Every structure is written in structure tokens, then in C-alpha cells.
Protein 1
Amino acid sequence: MSELSCTPTLDGLLPYEEAVERLVAAAVPLSDRAAVGLRDALGQVLAEPVTSGIDVPGWDYSAMDGYAVRAVDCAAAGVELPVSQRVPAGASPTLLVGGTAARIFTGAPIPEGADSVVMQEVCEAIDGGVRINARVEAGSNIRRRGEDIAAGNEVVAAGTRLQPQHLGLAASVGVAELVVCRRPRVALFASGDELLMPGEPLAPGKIYNSNLFTATALLQALGCEVVDLGIVEDTLEATKAVLRRGAREADLVFASGGVSVGEEDHVKPAVEALGSLDMWKIAIRPGKPVAFGHIDGTPFIGSPGNPVSLFVTFLLFVRPFLLRMQGREDWRTGSMTARADFDWPRPDKRREFHRARLAFDASGIGRISVHPSRSSGVLSSVTWANGLAVIPEGQALHRGDEIAFLPFNELLA
């Protein structure tokens, strides 16, 4: 028995949580590493932590434009001091002579001997000097050395998917290159003699292949390289041939359609003939026939062909698998709770991830409405929605009940 085998539910379906945990446990992080420049690192996953070799800031500096002084010289408002030097950002100031002030600007180093900066708004320039119209406290308006980052501190952890702020932080400590994980290569194909590519004339009985473009964009959004294997005819031999090719060329083979048990569904028997099918049929709606296995050691995931089922199962299963393959620990699907703005009197035996929209009322309370169609063929419902409402199996809901909501802005990042 495969290590992914487990006790199914009474109706023969694998529980959602167990399916995700076991799928992710089978994801082997890629070991390939590469050093890339900061300009090429956006969206990639950091393989080695970034550690600062310097203090940031590297010296005490002024938090604003004003005058650097000794607080002891400004114990009362109205003190007049000669200005002994001018210190712009990037300058190297000299020692501040007691009883004098230094004109200083934001970001400029604090002269040795000074212990405060007085903002220019409470000062008056006078002939050769400055009148300080406030009492000064030692340490005011100074940013201290190492206040942001101390030398030796880890500033970006391994496993982080690099965003613009991470790249700016690495640059701030002088790091020019980052060691990142190789982008996963995912071989993608769609099964179905009914499929046509957009731009081709639409013939009777044919539909346009939306799944290829949905899946490609989902994969690219996760930083993957896509190996497009196109549309595969509904025969066992053609399916086996494309699976062999995908297993040779990629780190993961992802199939849309053909994973059920109809006479024209050839993916499941093809995977079983070439390797192993380790998981199939999950207790969710939509997307019950999610397949997972291996072909010559290469992992395979198959989703149903209905476009909503593909979209939902990708977010719930393929996304965490790929995140873990990239070495990320933040693969779990985050959720929030809000109040149902609908009644759900007839629950399914399976957990339902229904297309939903979260909005906030005038009181700031989050309320979830659901799309009127439960059909997994209504692709427009996922553009109407901004997330998925999690409707527990076997549980009726009433308007005002709190339920879980999975926002797309989390799932698509």
C-alpha cells in the first residue's frame, strides 16, 4: 500500500485536511540553487538567508532638518549660538565645539560632541548664528546606529518568496546577489477531443480551452516555468505518451480533465499503467476527482476538467504542493471568518468551497454572499467572487452564522 494511503470516509472519499497534509508531505523541495542579482530575484524563493554585515544605519544621524547642538548649551528657550559648520547628508562633520551649533539636514551624520538635533521650525537664523526658541532635551531627533538592523542579524529568512520590500532590504545591507531556489517546471496539458484553442472557428460540439490559460496563469503567479503540452486527444495511448513526456521534462505534471471514470477518461488508467496513483477522490465540492501519483518518480496531479473545479482544486491542492516544492513553509491556506448573508438549508455530505463575495456593511461587519449557481461549469462565477466560502459538510447554515472565508488575494499570492 502506498504511503499516501489512508482510511477513507464512509462514502469512500478522502477527508479534505488529510488529503492536503498527505499531498504536501509528498512534495520534495527542489535542491537546485542559483545566485541571481536583485533585479532578477522578484517572485523567487530565497534558498539561503540574508544576513547583514553592517549596522543600519551605520552611524547616528539626524531625523530632520535643523541644528545639531549640545543639550547643556540649550537649557532654556531663546539661547543664541554661533553656527560652526554645515552638515548635509553624505558629509563627514568635524567635532562640534561646545557653545556652537551645526546646521544639519535629514540623514546627515551627527557631529561628535553633539547630543541633540533641534528642528528648524523652532529656530531663527540670525547673523552668523541661530536662536533656539525651545528648551532642548538630550537625544532628541537622533536616529541611532544599528537602530534598524544590527550587524550579524538575519534580515530575510530562507523560504521567503521575495517581494519588492525584501529586495530593498537586501540592498540596504549591501547584498547584491541572492541565492534562490530554481523555479519549478510544470508540464501542463488538457484532455478532451471537444477542446479548441481561442481564435479557432467554433464548431458544433466544441468548446474553447479556457483551462489551459487559467492553469498557466495560476502557475506563473506562483513563479513556475510552464511546459505547455497542449491538448491531448481522448485515447489511452495519447495520454500515456504525454504523461511520459511531461515526466521527462518537468518537476510536476499537471493535467486538466480525464481523471474521472468515464469511457473517455484516460488519465487515471494511464497513470496507473506508467507509475502509481496514490490518491484519488476527495470529500469536497467542486473537485471530487483530484488525482495524485507518480510517473517514473515525477509527481503528477490531475484536476477535473470543469473550469471552476480546476480553479478551486488548484488553489486547494496544487498551490500548497508547489509552495512546499519551492521550500516554503507558508503553504497552508489562510482563512478568516465572517457572517453568512445567505441561508444554506440543504448541506452536502462533502465540504463545499463555494464561490463567494465578502463585503463589509456600514457597521464594518464582514458579510459573505454566495454565487447563485453551484455548477462547476460557470467560470464567470470566479470573476464575480473575491474568495471561497467554506460550507461544512452536513451542516445547515442560517443567515448571520459565522463561516470561514478564503480570500483570493491570499490564495493567488
Protein 2
Amino acid sequence: MVVVAAAAAALAAGCKSASAPTQPSPAVTVARPTSESVADYLDFTGNTAAINSVTVVARVEGYLEKIHFTDGARVKKGQLLFTIQQDQYKAQLAQAKAQVMAQKAALWHASTEFARYSDLVKQDAATQTTVDRWEYEKEAAAANLLAAEAQVEIAKLNLSYTEVRAPFDGRAGRHLVDTGALVGSMGQQTSLVEVDQIEPLFVYFTIDERDLLRLAQRRPAPGETVEQGTIPFFFGLLDEDGHPHEGRLDFAATSVAPTTGTLQVRGTYPNQDSRVLPGLFVRVRVPALKKREALLVPGDAISFDQQGEYVLVVNDKNVVERRAVKTGQQVGDALVVNEGLTADDRVIVEGILQAIPGREVAPHAADAGAPKTPATSAPAG
């Protein structure tokens, strides 16, 4: 009976082992890297600045009679901003004009006498000394007339300075002097208001030596030229995602600053709605002049560990492998892979948690079009 029981137990165990199902391989979704023309870019930090910024000053002495603008308002070139007391300058202009009339009369009289005595000297009715004296009087009157006319122009200029106007289109700050105050006294230039032109707007940033050398490697080939103002750049404010504003680079310093090892670069942004103000901190992105072919994978396929960046790929035996990679910039939802992958690799894009390096998986191809990237490779994110 013992032998029969043991045989029955062994038979039952054999049947159970034979009927136990094998565990299936985990399913994962794979996709091959896509090839696309992308433009490399460099990121910087910078600041915005007004394209023109002027402190308007009083150029003549007098009491401030009237303020013709509202603090912070937009002003047009030539718009009247302040009026300085004009009475004395109008009187000076009238006096200068009267002096011109007097000198004209003196010139007429000297010219007439010079002509008369020139005729008399021919008849031996006058001396040459008298003729010479009236010639001198005529020349002196002509010079005095020129001086009087110059005084008229100076008087007109001083009178025009009593009307302080905007030097260009822009925005006026707050007025710095109140009505009734004496301005321009003792030859001092009294500051009246600051006017900034912010349409367009400057964006300044600096490039360090390392990035400058990288850009130098991407310069145009011999014989190719890049016109000033055609190189684009992008920037974003602190409260904005990505770099939504686009401008054009228009200036670079002629040498690297030896104290900081940086090169100053400037770009121009249209700023048509005047939303961006001077003095703001901005994140700047400058793309390379030329595009290059690159491999892209979805950003979710990139993982990180102590050894760095890596992706999981499936080989021809459906076994998972860890592949170290070096990524570049982001293009839409995808990342550029500079090293570590080929166009034929099958990258795991879904089911990464079930994929263990060295184990077999059941790969399924991702939907056509993955990874999704924007139609253009302009900098984003």
C-alpha cells in the first residue's frame, strides 16, 4: 500500500507539472528613430533695452509754464511736451530784428556816401582820405548787418527752445519738474522727462569663449555671406513657456572682453504691441545658420541612471538591451540623439517598466508617424 501511494503521488505531481502554463513575454511598443533636418541652437540669458533713451533737458533759462503730456503716455516725434516762459525770448527776437533794420540803414548810408565821394574825388572836389573812410564805413556796416542777422537766428533758436518737444516716437516717463519751477538757471541743464523708444527693442546678451568657438565652427563656407539683420534669434520672458518672440541679430562686439571672456551680441525685436519693456530678463535662443540631419526619439523613451542617459532597445532576438546615448536639443516632443543609436534600432517607447535588459519581450510596432515632431525645427521649449 505504501508503494502504491507513493506511485500515485508521483503520478499526480507529474501531471501537475506537465499542465503548468509558461509565463508569456511582456509586451512593449517599439519605434525606430526618425531622421529629420534640425538646426542646433545655443541658449543664453540677456536683457532688453530701449533702442533710444533720452533725458530731455531745458536748454534755456526760464520758468516752466505748462506741461502738455500725461506721465507714461505715448508721444510722437515733435510733440510739444513743455513750455518755458517765452516773453523775454520774444522780446530778444524783436530787438535782434530791429538791429538788423538799423544795420541795413547804416549800410545804405555808407554805400551812398562812398559812391558820392568816389565821384567827387575824380573831380578833385574831395580827398582820397574821405573816400577811404566811407569805404571803411560801408564794409563795417555790411559786417555789422551779418552779425545782426546772426543774432536774429540765435534769438529764434532760443525762442524755439522754450517749446520742448519729443525727440522721437516713444513713451514718456514722469515729469521731473513741476509747473512754475525755474529751469536752466546758471547755464545748468535741468532734466525734464525721460523718453524711451521701445518699438523696436534691443535684446543684449553675451557669449562665452566656448560657445563662441562652437559658433565659429558653424560659420558659412568660404564664399558664402550672411547679411546683417538676417540671422534670427528667439527669446522668452520669465512667465512664458519656450521662446515665442522672434527677432534678428544686428550687432556683435569686435573683440572678446579680456576680463570676462565674453562677447556682447545684440538683437532687434519689433515689439509692435509694446508689451515687452526695457530692462527685463529674457532667455535667448540662437539657432545655427545651417541645418543637419539628426535622429530623433520620443522624449519619454530617454531614461537616466548613475551612468547617464540611456534608452532600451530590442535586438533581432527580441531581447532587451541597454544603450547609452547622448542627446541634444528638444524638437517638439522628441529629443535629438547625437550618439548611441542608428536608424535601424528598435527603441522601446511604451512598456519601459516591464522591459528588463537581458530578458525577452514581445515587441509591437508603434503607430506610423511616431515620434511626433513639429513640421519645422524652429527652436521650441
Protein 3
Amino acid sequence: MTVVLTNFAEGTLCQGCSWTVADEFELAERIGYVALGQSRHVAKILFGIRAIPPITTSSTRAAAIKLLTIPPGAEPWHRDGWLFQTLSWLVASQANPSALIRAPHMILAHKGFDGLQLELDSASGVVSAAVIFEDKATDNPRKTIKDEVWPEFHLLETGDRENVLSADVSSLLSTRPGIDADKAIENVIWKQIRRYRVSITVGHTHYTADGRKRLFKGYDEVATGDVVRRRGEILLVHQLRPWLASLADKAISFLKAMGTAHV
């Protein structure tokens, strides 16, 4: 496994898992494929399907490298945010390969949901769960959750952006032939169908069971109901920005080597 997932459950507060990157080079390779626009190839790998990577062009590889490179004089936040969103997508796809999960955006700082995952009832064909992602690569996890994530989830719980959610659900359902999208989204407006998944980088302070309870304090107040509605995902990182920079460099090296192989 590229990323090892360790489940945890914090009573009725939330449930989720901690991530441990087991192979950074393999992770960087998969990020490189996503940067090329080949998320479907990565999804096949995660589903256990042996597949030959699509052929790339020099311009496609150059665009992928540009996506992974911080422009001179710019801050790393947008690039790092995309890297972490891609990692979150990889983890979600690994944990539930049969679910419909939207591929990462290919534009940095894209406005909208960080991610969306749909679970379908096999008998009725309707959406049984629409999981909305919030992915945060940060050095201040508790402050970020309290000041940014909880307010966003609260707004969604009150009906904010239901039109955007319905449109995103319909778009994602269109990728699965044979599904009646109109029928499938009939119950998306109901609160119990909506679920939430916050993924965030942490230090040792929030890595223990007690630390996770402090980190996710208030989750059950902004998204009430059964605990299955509240997922929390954590990645322990000691030096966040240098680690993400190293991961991007490895992905770029993979893409450059791919170009050499195509010569």
C-alpha cells in the first residue's frame, strides 16, 4: 500500500483514519499521473486493475510540471493545497474503490467543494450518501477547523449551496452509465444523506486519541445526527512545507523521466 490507513473512532464525535505514507516515490508517481490528467489510470490501479498508462506528449508533461511548480515569488499555498487534495482523493479511492469519487480539480485554488464522494444503494439506484470533502494542509489544524471548516459545514447544513451540490452530484453520476441521475439525486437535499469528511495535517499534539478529540471538538454540533455523517482524516507531518516541496519534486522527477523514456 502506498498509504497505510489506520481506523479510529472517537465515540459519537466522529470516525475516520490516520494516514501513513509508506512509499513516497510511489505516491509521487501517482500524483504525477493525476497532474497529467490521468486520474482514471490511477483509479484503475487503486481498484486492482493492471493497466498500461496512456501515452503522453511533451506539452502535457510540461503542463503537469507547471502545475507542480511554484512560480517565482509566489507563495506555496495553492500548489500545496492541490497536492493535499490529490492525496485526499487517493486515500478516499483506496479506502472505497467502488464509490464514485470526483477527481481532483486541475486548476489551482478552484472554488467549490474540495472533493465529493457518492455511495449508491445497489437495490434502488439512488444516492445513499453524498460525502463532501474539506482538505486542509496547515500548520494550525485546530484553528483551521474551528475558523474555516466548521463554519463551512454549518452553512451546508442550513441549505447553503444545495444547487451547487446537486449540480456536482449530477455531473459525477453522468460518469456512470446506466444510472438515472434524476432519480438518484431525489434525496440529496435531505440532510441525513449529506455526510462530511475533513482531512487535515497534524503534529503530535493532535495525533493521539485525546488530541483527535480536541482537534475535532464541535463536529457533532455542526453536523448533527449519526456519527457516520462525520469523518475525520489526519496525516502526521513534522515539517509540512518542506515535505510537500519534496513530494512535488519527486513527482516532477517522475514526469521528466517519463519524457526521457518517450524520446
